[in-house]
Amino acid sequence: MKSVQVITLGCSKNTVDTEHLLAQLPEDAFKILPEDWSGPVDYLLVNTCGFIGDAKEESINALLEQAGRRSAGQAGRLFAFGCLSQRYASELPALIPEVDAWFGARDLDPLVGALGAVPEDSLRTSRRFGGGPYSYLKISEGCDRRCSYCAIPLIRGAHRSVPLERIVREAEGLAARGVKELILIAQDTTYYGLDLYGRRRLADVLEALSQVPGIEWIRVHYSYPEGFPEDVIDAMASNPKICRYLDIPLQHISDKVLADMHRSVDGARIRSLVSRMRERIPGVVLRTTLIVGHPGEGPSEFGELLDFVSEARFERLGAFKYSEEEGTWGAEHLQDDVSPEEKQHRYDILMELQKGISAEFNESRVGKEYRVLVDSVMDGRLVARSGYESPEVDGEIIVSCPEGTDLQSLVGEFVNVRITEALDYDLVAHLVL
How crowded is residue 194: how many other Cβ atoms within 10 Å of its Cβ? Predict the structure, then answer.
């Protein structure tokens, strides 16, 4: 058997790509080694990220580290694929000659061929792994939007929805592996269906997936605010399988900055959308991401952003410091006029503000009972999440159990807990029997 090791960097979309890739490798011919394997391997693959400066640096460092293994004879062949490989296909081979071949983010079939397997259409909705309490489900690829700071359309290409029946088949396969929660991802989940069906059909995806036996929770990530489908709000309010949780990257609130970002939405419409969600989806938890230090963001625009965050009280919030990306409209037409020191200063102020808001939200949950999904066991306690926590990006609920409880048997199961303590981001709870 040939041994294969894949090191996956970047976002959850890359994770799905890796799982789809490995599903194309026959189990009787390929042995998949763990990501942290340090011994000999026949094929060593790195799934790269090229989104922003920090991610590119991480990918380059990972490639250089694995090139060292290749030079030391620990890897038979070293392949790179994914976003960084797609974006810098002409420059990287000279920089890291130890890499035997480079494949882009849209080159999974050629990569499968280079590994000595034959791509099979019937396996495109399969996963070699993908089991566990939750799994990401990619409903589209690429992006038709042209935000001035974003290189994703240059890397991933135009928006392409996955046919609804194929999404359902993939979900059924995941459910058969024991997956209880599906996390829908795309460059923009709200854009789903426009290319295939002539209209936005995210609500139809949610309804179809809620009918899949074994799927108990469906969570939506990466939803663009412009043109947000109103029927999705209705679905989240009425369907108990759809988590009352939404990841909706807003990026800013200043009309000036939003216009420079080419976001096709203004502050008033963002405020109206947030208000409608709060009113029509009782108890909804909103997660957003913001960019600080974008060209043209002066003290007044940053102050407006802070005021908005104070007013909106996002339960979850992450932030990026603006990174000028070559090839984007912003890099070619806007001056990166905020110093790195000022970007860091604004980032620190914003995240300190959000820390208090998150802590306040967590405090409000002490004493309440929640149905949670158990992800793992750590240090004699359960690590779980409610419908209000998404894995890997939000806090966790650490659950104490009575002595003698078979903790491992509860992984992947739903249990009831009562919150006993609130930390800045995590919660502490005990099992309710």
Answer: 17
Q: How far apart are CA 410 and CA 152, in angstroms?
A: 39
The predicted-structure confidence for 415-432, as pLDDT tens digits, reads as follows 999 999 998 789 999 999
Per-residue tokens: 412: 């992947």
CA torsion angle 213 215 218 222 (round to 10): -100
Q: Phi first, then psi: what are they for 187, rounded to 5°?
A: -65, -35
Three-state secondary-structure class, residue 127: coil
pLDDT digits 0-9 by tens, 333-342: 999 999 999 9
Backbone angles phi, psi at 136, to 5 degrees: -80, 145
CA 72-30-70 angle, to 5 degrees, is 10
Helices (H), 74-143: 83-87, 92-95, 108-114
pLDDT > 70 in the chain, percent: 100
Distance (Å, whole) CA 76 – CA 39: 12
What residues have CB less than 8 Å from 244, skipping those under 6 apart? 236, 237, 281, 282, 283, 284, 285, 387, 388
Rounded mean pLDDT, 132-158: 93
274 within 8 A of 228, measured Cβ to Cβ: no
Task: Please state, in angstroms and rounded to a whole number, the distance separating the CA atoms of residues 241 and 192.
Answer: 20
Per-residue pLDDT tens for 214-267? 999 999 999 999 999 999 999 999 999 999 999 999 999 999 999 999 999 999
Spatial CA neighbour of 217 closest among 245, 192, 193: 245
Q: DSSP secondary structure string, 308-331? A: HHHHH--SEEEEEE----TTSHHH
Residue 403 pLDDT more than 80? Answer: yes
Return phi, psi of residue 15, to 5°: -60, -45
The tokens for 284 are: 């909804």
Closest alpha carbon to 309 in 344, 343, 270: 270
383 CB-side CA count, 13 A: 13
